[in-house]
Specification:
Length: 278
Amino acid sequence: MTSTIRAGFARGLIELRQAFSGFDLIAQIFWPAATLVAVFFLRNRQFQDSGFKLGTLILPGVLGMFIAFGMLLVMQYLTAEREDGTLLRAKATPHGIQAYYVGKLVATSGTILVYLAILLVPGLFIVDGTKLATAGAWLTMAWVLFLGLVATQSIGAALGSLISSPRGAGLAALPVMGLISISGIFYPITALPGWLRWIAEIFPVYWLGLGMRSALLPDGMADVEIGHSWRQPETFGVLGAWALAGLVLAPILLGRMARRESGSRLAEYREKALQRVG
């Protein structure tokens, strides 16, 4: 187990370094930078008559959104590397699938942490009214980040094991983007109809944004939230439940996926890919 984790960690660091080198670096920086531009232009707008600036409300929410993107990254990795034979090669080595999965978690988590740094460091200078200097803020951010990474990436691995092509992963991203739009990331959720709030509260994206807001914003800004509260116990419970569900489902589904990989299935994947290109 120790050698498997070590091999997976080394693999993840190599993939992370490759992801942030050359032309790929520009692609990685683009979305966090574009999000920062949106925060900049909204920094002085107020939310209704609350007196709170919209940019200050948005910054913690987009941190939660980028944590949730880990689910999409893992899905895309699994579907693309199943099709190019990476998974089959991993299966051919002892404990290769386990090391592969550890590597993907390391690479994805590292990517998400870089995104958060790109957003948070300049973002604190763009908006006013955050409280990151307190120890409680760092502690809250730490457990929200940990539960969020475990929940989103394990669920992403479970879903990725069920999707057979990169195109399917791309289609699966559409409902995730729709979920982000109703989860209070770019505008307080209390401005939405009640039935949309109920849908958002089922999934982790809303709770990731709420948890980050509770870490970064003063208590008075909870007045724009549901129940005028940060609801930290509920945040911990929902994110913990999603993390537990992912940790139970992901190994089962990944194991089943690995057992089904073979040379003939790889040839089938490549045939389908050639048909899409044609």
